[in-house]
Amino acid sequence: RGGAENTPAIVGAGVAAQRADAWLNDPAHVSAGRALRDRFEERVVAGARRAGVDASVNGPLGVDGHAEPLRLWNTSSIAFARLEAEALLLLLSERGVCCSGAACSSGSLEPSSVLLATGIPPEKAHGSLRFSLSRETTEQEADHAAEIVVQGVARLSRSMPAG
């Protein structure tokens, strides 16, 4: 009803938005976040490959294998060929790693139409997970999460039929 606005909360939201804007407009912060995301991706992909799983980052990579600025600094989409994202999500959730499957396939057994439209093969789109880091994520936390992801990928891949 009119006249019952929560003025302190409105002011607080405005201050929070100003602080977030200032943080995001500092190139050093975004660069550090991008480097942490790249480190996480490198560890997950290398570990999955050691476990015999074809893993790759979804999205454009630069010549040196690092992410181009066209990708969000805090978001990573990694494909694990022939693995089911839903099964991997359950394994990771049990170990305290929160991530998600492709948003455009939520609640569906079909691979994400968006991932397919970007040229990702169905066997990778089915096994794609999206990870997000925050401005407060530490290197130790990202490394620990990468280790858990690799363990989950290895465990799930052992339960899959060969071929």
Written description of the protein model:
The protein is α+β, with helices and mostly antiparallel strands. The chain has helices at 7-24, 27-50, 85-94, 113-117, 122-125, 139-158; strands spanning 55-57, 75-80, 100-101, 128-132. The protein contains 6 helices and 4 strands, in the order ααββαβααβα. The longest helix has 24 residues, at 27-50. The model has no long low-confidence stretch (mean pLDDT 87).
Catalogue the unreliable spans: none
Question: How many β-strand stretches?
Answer: 4
Give the H and E element order: HHEEHEHHEH
Q: How many helix segments?
A: 6
- Major sheet: arrangement of strands: 1-2-4-3
| Backbone CA Rg | 18 Å
The separation of the N and C termini measures 63 Å
Give the oligomer, counting copies of the same chain as homo and different chains as hetero: single chain
Give the overall pLDDT as a whole number.
Answer: 87
The description of the largest β-sheet is:
4 strands, antiparallel
Q: What overall form do the CA principal axes indicate?
A: elongated
Task: Determine the fraction of residues in helical runs and give it as a percent range.
Answer: 40-55%
Query: Approximately how much beta-strand content do the residues carry?
Result: 5-15%
Structural class: alpha+beta
How would you concisely characterize the structure shown here?
This protein has helices at residues 7-24, 27-50, 85-94, 113-117, 122-125, 139-158; strands at 55-57, 75-80, 100-101, 128-132. It has 163 residues and is an alpha+beta fold. The mean pLDDT is 87.
